[in-house]
Write a structure and sequence with these properties.
Rossmann fold, 3-stranded antiparallel sheet, 10 helices, 11 strands, 34% helix, globular, binds zinc ion, SAM-dependent_MTases_sf, Methyltransf_25, RlmA_N
Length: 295
């Protein structure tokens, strides 16, 4: 079987969770080739096995090099091992996967490595991962690297999924659309959002920016917005450093949108320093989808 047919089989198994992004109607898999709604809106499986369900054109700054660098940092550099472990622990604790299938959606998954690492850590046959991102480049790479997970190019503001189809939503260092997240989460479903804290990648920001404002993050607004939509049950603060090699520092700079507005000499100075400690400083927000407003 080709990659395309294998993904089509996987999607067939979960086709009840799909909803047409154009008319919101039910969908089915046709000839192991495409996902088609009752009004005949058709979305084909790509060769790598993903489905492009975007209904508008977009311009993404995120190119192949950025995603390659990101994958290297996440998988080979293992820079996020602690958050991956923590998230998998939280899912394990809050979600009972013995009662049937569990869908974990990674909203804004990029090239899919965070989701894949968490699924590998979690190791549960009853769990299916769905990764969605607006970037076709990212999803194409995810589908080429990681089988057994459903990969979709799509819009967070118009998720191609039916109401109450997901048990867990992950939203890792990525923008959110809480209205949509609430719609597709089951009641009491879990949302895990990872946000930077003030010292996140501070060595990189200090090298890139002279302006002290840009040298640290503030996440209070993000946290309070989250609390307006979900019942916040826990916040885990993970703060640690990891030593990166010169090659890894280059990858780290490549994967970061921070460098888009930076001077080349600043970037070079950062990547040419040899071994360096890099700070990861994150909050993991754990929320529950309750009905109505929570605050
Ligand atoms: Zn349709």
């Amino acid at each position: 079987m080709t990659n395309k047919e294998e993904s089509a089989e996987l999607v067939s198994k979960y086709v009840h969770v799909f909803s047409c992004p154009l008319c919101n109607s039910q969908m089915k898999v046709a000839n192991l080739k495409s996902l088609v709604c009752i009004n005949n809106h058709t979305f084909d499986f790509a060769k790598q096995g993903y489905i492009n369900m975007m209904t508008r054109s977009t311009n993404s700054h995120y190119d192949k090099e950025l995603f390659k660098a990101r994958q290297k940092i996440i998988i080979e550099g293992d820079l996020y091992a602690l958050p991956h472990e923590k998230i998998s622990e939280v899912i394990n604790e809050k979600i009972n996967a013995s009662n049937g299938e569990v869908m974990i959606l990674d909203a804004g998954c990029g090239e899919g490595s965070h989701l894949q690492r968490i699924l590998d850590e979690y190791k549960n046959e009853m769990v299916t991962g769905v990764g969605i991102d607006i970037s076709r480049e990212g999803i194409r790479m995810a589908a080429s690297n990681y089988k057994k997970t459903i990969w979709l190019v799509g819009d967070l503001a118009n998720l191609p999924l039916v109401e109450q189809s997901c048990h867990v939503i992950l939203n890792i260092l990525s923008p959110a659309n809480y209205m949509e997240f609430k719609r597709v989460l089951v009641p009491e479903g879990l949302i895990v959002k990872v946000v930077p804290r003030s010292n996140y990648l501070k060595e990189l920001r200090e090298a890139l920016f002279d302006d002290t404002d840009k040298r640290s993050y503030k996440n209070d607004e993000t946290v309070s917005l989250f609390k307006r939509h979900f019942h916040l049950v826990e916040i885990f603060n993970l703060s640690y450093t990891k030593e990166l090699t010169q090659t890894e520092l280059t990858k780290l700079a490549q994967m970061s949108p921070l460098v888009w507005n930076s001077k080349k000499e600043h970037i070079d100075q950062f990547t040419n320093q040899g071994l360096s400690e890099i700070t990861v400083d994150l909050d993991i927000l754990v929320g529950i989808n309750v009905k109505g407003d929570v605050e």
